[in-house]
Amino acid sequence: MSVSSHRAASPAATTCAVLTVSDTRSADTDTSGRAIADLLAAAGHTVASRTIVRDEPTEITRAVRELVGHDDVQAIVTTGGTGLSERDATVEALRPMFDREIEGFGELFRMLSYEQVGPAAMLSRAAAGVISGRAVFLLPGSEKAVRLAVEKLILPELGHIVREIGR
Length: 167
Prior knowledge:
Elements: H1 3-8, E1 15-21, H2 31-42, E2 46-53, H3 57-68, E3 75-79, H4 90-94, E4 100-101, H5 103-117, E5 127-131, E6 134-139, H6 143-166
Helix pairs in contact: 2-6, 5-6
């Protein structure tokens, strides 16, 4: 089956959750989480929840465990905590939970990011994987970065990814 055939057989709409990891953002200042939710909704996906947790590994894992416990949630998109600072804990918290890693996501994100920011793209630890049958995307905290990832990588393949995970 060709990629276009797979896409045609994939759901056009999915149910997603958005999780912002930040010690400083609030519902009013979370422009990255809002951008993710708005882009998903504009593409026809349902955003079941939008949550903000502190950059603490236990809070991040607890929030993701709760989200994967909802039968309707097919994908989780996180923003924040993927950099190199001491407080950036999203990757360390969630990578051990991956049943499978989607290595190409991080590779492609950094390639696209390189076109915009040059070698600073290597500082991103954006990643994706599958946790309990859900696609989970770990995005940087900047609004520009999440727009890049959602528009260029997640939206074009989300239905296809959800279909493949469910097979």
